[in-house]
Amino acid sequence: MKLGYCSITWGGVVGHPAGVTSVKDLFYRANGDTLQAVREIGEVGYRGVEMFDGNVAEFEGDPRVLTDALQAAGLELVSVYTGANFIYADILPDELHRVRRAAQLAASFGAKRLVVGGGARRAAGTTDEDYARLGESLDVVCDIAEEHGLEASYHPHLGTIVENPDEIERVLGRSRIAFCPDTAHLAAGGGNPAELIRRYPDRVRHVHLKDFRPDPFGFLPLGAGVLDLPDIISAIAEADYDSWLMVELDEYDGDPQEAARISKDHLTKVLAEAGIPLD
């Protein structure tokens, strides 16, 4: 296994304000210092990083700033995360334009993976057609990713139409996209993360690890919440997944580097106890 970390903890996630009036320009961004995040993730000892599409786009005009920072930190850009509503026919072309740009950015900085979330909940209620359209859209995302030498994975997420196990089944049954289990989102959505990984072993191509506390609700560093990380790691190993484990924490009331270190120390211990080596 190889360990990576997501840069979201440095500043939390926001959407680019241009997206209010232009769907094609609505990127995710971690609202902090990207270069600081890269440096501090590397200092903790992680080997890879995942970024939002908007943070990678910051360096489109001067790519060496990011590539030099990654090299100095001993990191590779593993994956880029983007997302969309995917269910509204009128805006779907502009959303897919944005996904295509995210794929171009990911490939240009050496990433091999594109991670997407989404599937909007309508105010009037979710319909069967929404799942059909989401599945069709995710297949197009796969095509876009493959055009750029990337593999696409879908990340079930709170606030979308894919939160609980039944909803996950509905979308994975309608698309060929790979499955990115996010352990905390799966648990918060009412699922058992290890069980869901065991249900879809052939679909797991990317992994987000974070811990979770149901009451009061909160995402936490690994080992600080209620999740059974040893069982999750066992399920991942049973799926013959031997690649990047991306640790993620949406926000932290303290030093984000401290949170990254807490998670790495705990994860390294769990992997060692399971006899799983690190590359």
TrEMBL record:
- Keyword check for Isomerase, yes or no: yes
SUPFAM superfamilies per record: Xylose isomerase-like
Q: What GO MF annotations does this protein's record show?
A: isomerase activity
What keywords are assigned to this protein?
Isomerase
**Chain ranges of the Xylose isomerase-like TIM barrel domain:** 40-268
Pfam families referenced in this protein's UniProt entry, alphabetically? AP_endonuc_2
What this protein is called in its record is: Sugar phosphate isomerase/epimerase
Source organism (scientific name): Arachnia propionica
